[in-house]
Design a protein that fits this description.
mainly alpha; MetI-like fold; 8 helices; elongated
Length: 221
Amino acid sequence: MGGSFNSNHFVFLMMGAVWTLALTMLAFVSGGVLGFVVSLCRVSPLRALRLITAAYILLVQGTPLLVLIFLLYFGVSMAGFQVSPLLAADLALTVYSSAYLGEIWRGCIESVPREQWEAAECLPLTRTQRMRLVVLPQAYKIAAPPTAGFMVQIVKNSSLASVVGFVELTRAGQLVNNSIFQPFLVFLIVAVLYFAMCYPLSYWSRKFETRSGIYARVQPE
């Protein structure tokens, strides 16, 4: 029983960290695409579209991420479809990210000075062209810091994928600890690895915000 922490255990934890980053990137890309659509719908001139996406955001933000993972893993399986832990975690994080990013980016789009919107309306451009050429490039600069900050939340929340058996960093730490029974050492290393992944994003977010003098109005909860 038990044993000493060795290089094999560390390599196993590093592989878990790699899978954490992979899950984070998958969720951010897919959640970002869906979140971008949500943000555009939130500023749409169509009231029905705004209400539907507002309800979607309220529903997702009011549901714990852990519950979303359970629904997409156990619930879908009970319906007769086989879902892998990676796919269930990715789908849950995609839905979760899309709601928060959609609301963050909606706030950034609406933070573009009203004069810019009015000036764009004076040009012979369609609404799509006004958004693409005038509004979105300015909203992008506002959105960069809070988006990077939200990626930190995705990295940390990816640990919930361990509940369905996906071997990311937290689950890897649990497995190593179960074999050597050194929780303080194992989870201290896990915490350091999480810090190593999250700190660069937090630092970049603060640096970009300070350099550009932009303070986004919308922050994730």
